[in-house]
Amino acid sequence: MKAFYGDLKLGILGGGQLGRMLIQQAINYNVTVKVLDPDRDAPCRKLCDEFVVGSLSDYETVYKFGKKVDMLTIEIEKVNVDALEALENEGVLVYPQPRIIRLIQDKGLQKQFFKENEIPTAGFQVISSVDQLKNTHIPFPYIQKLRRDGYDGKGVYKVIDESYLEKAFTEPSLIEHWIDFEKEIAVIVARNADGETKTFPMVEMEFNPQANLVEFLVSPSDYSRHIQEEAERIAKKVAESLNIVGLLAVEMFLTKQGQILVNELAPRPHNSGHHTIEGNVVSQFEQHLRAIFNQPLGCTDSLNHAVMINILGEAGYEGPAVYHGIEKVLECPGVYVHLYGKALTKPFRKMGHVTVVDSDREKAIEKARFVQKTLKVIA
Fold it and tell me: Between the N and C ends of the chain, which has fewer C-beta atoms within 10 Å?
């Protein structure tokens, strides 16, 4: 294998903010990075060694891009897996492995994987038509999820009673029991080709009720050691059952009865790990690179209390982005601003994130609430 720090060419499918932050870390290792993305103004365009405009779902485009690199990774799951399988068969290293991406692309297959590997998750039923919704054994209310192409809350529908069936998804989907959870939590786990596996400490998350995406995250958790260890044990079991190489975000529910149920997976750096850049010994982005390059995994310990706030485009604004209140935020000690290089804002678009670190958990949360109230993206 070529040395990762010199002559290896890494290709990234997707040029968004996850790729941008991955490149920022790759620069420290002298890694040559090529990026494929359909948006010629994607956040990665100015940071990588070569930027290619093209479809991530087109077989020929992905295949030709992959033939010019030694290793491929992703920052988005919606890619052409057939092309990745062909590349893998021809000797290109693809991490996470194509079979895993194929499984993650289909929430029905994800759920079947949980069931087959005795990974705790909400009860579910895979359906192919609205008629099946009328005869399901799952009681109201329940959640309907599209099997494919859902993300950041899109493709999710809460069915409260029979009157809601009129607006239910007609495409192949799954339905699952509505979980009356106490908290949404997540654990990021990394695994390299030698089988070394490490988890980051469990985090607690708050979701934007309108956009249904992570808006506020606290690390490390102050739940009991038992709950944290169980969440990390489950995440590690998922990664080892998949035999994944790379990073895996495991999103979970903590129920009011203290049970932990796996909700969904993301086989890449994830929103629930952004705080690790300043808050942990190693960041999720460095850990992903270490894993796919089959290097020793880094120490994941928390350095401090860290709170991450997503910077979302304000409702009612669309156009060239203006960051109102950024000067006030930058006056605060322990506040780190990450802007994603997106020229245009629109409602609830992820425009950046802020991480607040402090030796005192409550002070970190207080400063983060100030950031959340003060920093607004308008046009």
Answer: N
